[in-house]
Amino acid sequence: MSDSVTAESLRAHSQCLLTELDDGTGVVLNIESKFYFTLNSTAVVVWKELASGARTRAELASSLVSAFEVGEAEAAADVELLMTELLAEGLVERAG
Question: Which of 29, 33, 76, 84 is the most buried (most CB within 10 A)?
Fold first, then answer.
């Protein structure tokens, strides 16, 4: 992955809302399309970071390292996989 991709800022789509469930998982609803997407607890942490403002993949991975007992490489791989999926579904957008 190129440095420009890892440095790009991403944010939660403004028409998407998270409902966090008691077990730490969550559901994101796109209120325009009525499409919903289930998130595991790792993805919920990432989503909250995205919803609080634009973040880079590196910042998101750092959040996972802080929230879970996971190494930087694994966190970065998890973020990359999640961002690929959320971007494809239109739930996350590039900032700026």
Answer: 76
Q: What is the per-residue burial (b if ≥16 Cβ within 10 Å, else e) of 47-86?
A: bebbbeebbbbeebbbbbeebeebeeeebbebbbebbeeb
Range of the structural domain that residue 31 is part of: 3-91
Q: Is residue 96 part of a domain?
A: no
Q: How far apart are CA 13 and CA 4, in angstroms?
A: 21
- Give the model confidence (pLDDT) of 21-68 as tens digits: 999 999 999 999 999 999 999 999 999 999 998 899 999 999 999 999
Q: pTM, whole model, 2 decimals?
A: 0.89
CA distance 68 to 71: 9
